[in-house]
Amino acid sequence: MSQFLKNNRKFLIPIAILVVIAIAYFAMRGGGEGQTAFQTVKVEKGELIATVGATGTVRARQSVNLVWQASGSVEDVSVSVGDKVAAEAVLASLSSTSVAQNIILAQADLVNAQRVLDDLLASDTARAQSWIVLRASQEDYDKAADLYNAMVSGDYEYEQITYTTIRGMRVPTVETVTVGEVDEETLADAKADMELKAAKLDDAQRAYDRLKDGPNASDVAAAQARVDAAQATLDMARLVAPFAGTVTDVQTLVGDQVNAGTFGFRIDDLSSLIVDVEISEVDINSIAVGQPVTLTFDAILGNEYHGEVIQVTQAGSIVQGVVNFTVTVRITDADELVKPGMTAAVNITVKELKDQVLIPNRAVRLVNGQRVVYVLEGGLPVMVEVRLGSSSDTMSVLIDGDVQEGDSIILNPPANFEPGGGPPPFAR
């Protein structure tokens, strides 16, 4: 027998392998009878949080790139990356000997303009002088008017000096002469003089009215404009922070030769970080200002951040035939790990529903255009038509359908339950 096996082993080994495979196959078929291969889950009530997801890039609420406005040699740099700066802080300046002449002279212009503005705001001299001029103008007008009116009424009097010789000496004597009527030329001259005095009185009155309650607003605005113009010219030789923030990039060093347009610094207001995301027109009407948001970052593993919707645009933009709307999210608990430029996965909570019958999304199938699930009853799958409401990534709310809390729903129903294909005929 052993000799037989030895002589025919090249034939017997393949036969033995086939026998083992056959035994295993029939054992598996026999052992599987009466057992289910379905994965099921019990239907339960719970809370559903419906979200709309998108991705966006973190940016600061305010961000600015500062570039030089003039050419010259950098004399001073007072900040480094990471420094926090106040608004109007001078970050760097050019050497005064390396800039254009108009910038050098701007310093003197600024001093003069500031002095004029300060005098205008603090000094009362102009008002006092305008009052003196007004009073004198009033007196001049009154005299001219009295004279003209007297000539018109025939009561015009004037003093005439006559001389009398007494003991050989000429002695002046003042006499008052009353003229009942004056010639037209004299009357016209008196009228013109009165009108001139009236015009000067009006000018003096306007000047006083502008100053009687303090500096005139127009004069102050003009003086301030001269100060601002001088300051703007002077600022061409330095870079100034336009708002409070953090220096996030520095490309200027002492001794550098720069030209107008050369990049110097970047400043970001890191106290408020936001993310802009594009939301499809299908979901935009479910987004509203104030909705809570969760954010995650591939660059910050294991951390979840929170925020809120602060702005929803009312006009969409078309990109490659798809209409999207921009939604702006503010991160409320950002830390030093979150930086502008990072990509964020954003989930906006649009609805929170409690105590609802929930159906796993992976259990739902589409049969003849109708959503169905398969309930396991007595070891057999039973198809049930369902109507679903709000959904999350994993669950949907059951609105209608013969599915009860505690039912076992099949998570992995096969495509066909019968040899002929299609759903089983015992759908209820």
Write the layout of secondary structure elements.
Blueprint: H1 2-7, H2 9-32, E1 40-42, E2 44-60, E3 63-67, E4 72-77, E5 84-85, E6 90-94, H3 101-122, H4 125-153, E7 156-166, E8 169-179, H5 184-211, H6 217-235, E9 238-240, E10 245-250, E11 257-258, E12 263-268, E13 273-280, E14 292-297, E15 300-312, E16 317-319, E17 322-331, E18 343-360, E19 365-367, E20 370-377, E21 380-391, E22 395-401, E23 408-410
Antiparallel strand pairs: 1-23, 2-13, 2-18, 3-12, 4-6, 4-11, 5-10, 6-9, 7-8, 10-12, 13-17, 14-15, 14-18, 15-17, 16-17, 18-22, 19-20, 20-21, 21-22
Helix pairs in contact: 3-6, 4-5
What does this structure look like?
The chain is α+β, with helices and mostly antiparallel strands. Among the domains are: 2-32; 51-61 and 271-353, Beta Barrel (Elongation Factor Tu (Ef-tu), domain 3), CATH 2.40.30.170; 66-95 and 239-270, OB fold (Dihydrolipoamide Acetyltransferase, E2P), CATH 2.40.50; 125-225, Helix Hairpins. It contains 6 helices and 23 strands. The strands form 5 sheets. It has a 6-stranded antiparallel beta barrel. Strand 7 (156-166) and strand 8 (169-179) form a beta hairpin. The radius of gyration is 48 Å and the shape is elongated. The model is unreliable at 24-36 and 417-428 (pLDDT under 50).
